[in-house]
Q: What sequence folds into this?
């Protein structure tokens, strides 16, 4: 079951990676919060007919839904804002930094020490992400700082989802955090953003694509899979998002991958293989 969950997280990384370029295009139209709010509201409403609401929510699990929803709100707000003022390469690398934040937060909050193998996997993933996304050249911009902050909230979200397992079923959990993030983002957008009709029409395809695939499917699968995959390992597998983002850039946009970027992809793949190894054996289905 563990390997199946890890493969489901890999599918999530594919979905998120395919949407990265779409989000980058939408970031330059001054509708950060309205964009995020619309896509998360769509994701939540799509799950509503599939979710058994009776008896799903109580005082215990509503706390985890609230924490996850607000972690998402801040993560996507900082990320989407940062995407408008930095390169896609820098953004991809800095976002992958949450694979470092997760074990650090787990150690600070719950004294859970990562294994040496996990530490090596994190080091390989970060090195690979740096080579893949920046080709070894990194220049700090304002957007980089914002996305660095978003990486902290992504790590927090991974941990909250893991800690909330067993408290609530996956579909109510997913729907609740989507609706909370969506409503909070739309309220913020209504207060601070004043987009034109042209701007909203331009980002509509991005809203629909990310609302269905990144949010409704991707984040829901993440919650289901993390029932069986520890947060440290989940973060490492999800950092494959940067690899798949590069792949879809080559497949759809014909963007060329340099040898140093291919080496970065290889390091990330090795890191993911390492987290599948336990006691010297590869985990079985």
A:
């Amino acid at each position: 079951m563990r390997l199946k969950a890890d493969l489901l997280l890999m599918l999530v990384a594919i979905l998120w990676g395919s949407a990265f370029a779409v989000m980058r295009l939408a970031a330059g139209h001054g509708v950060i919060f309205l964009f995020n709010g619309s896509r998360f509201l769509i994701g939540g409403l799509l799950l509503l007919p599939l979710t058994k609401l009776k008896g799903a929510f109580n005082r215990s699990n509503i706390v985890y839904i609230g924490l996850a929803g607000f972690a998402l709100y801040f993560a996507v707000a900082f990320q989407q804002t940062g995407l408008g003022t930095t390169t896609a390469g820098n953004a991809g690398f800095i976002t992958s930094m949450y694979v470092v934040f997760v074990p650090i937060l787990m150690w600070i909050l719950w004294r859970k020490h990562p294994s040496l193998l996990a530490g090596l996997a994190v080091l390989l993933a970060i090195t690979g992400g740096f080579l893949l996304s920046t080709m070894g050249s990194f220049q700090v911009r304002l957007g980089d700082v914002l996305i660095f902050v978003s990486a902290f909230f992504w790590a927090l979200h991974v941990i909250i989802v893991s800690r909330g397992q067993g408290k609530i079923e996956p579909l109510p959990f997913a729907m609740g955090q989507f609706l909370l993030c969506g409503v909070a983002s739309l309220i913020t957008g209504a207060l601070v953003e004043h987009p034109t009709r042209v701007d909203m029409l331009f980002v509509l395809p991005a809203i629909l694509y990310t609302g269905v695939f990144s949010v409704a499917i991707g984040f829901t699968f993440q919650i289901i899979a993390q029932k069986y995959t520890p947060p440290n390992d989940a973060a490492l597998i999800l950092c494959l998002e940067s690899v798949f983002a590069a792949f879809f850039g080559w497949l759809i946009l014909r963007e060329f991958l340099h040898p140093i970027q291919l080496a970065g992809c290889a390091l990330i793949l090795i890191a993911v293989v390492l987290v599948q190894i336990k006691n010297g054996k590869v985990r079985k289905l």
Observations:
- The CA atoms of residues 151 and 196 lie 30 Å apart.
- The radius of gyration is 18 Å.
- The chain has one domain: 2-282.
- The chain is about 75% helix and 0% strand.
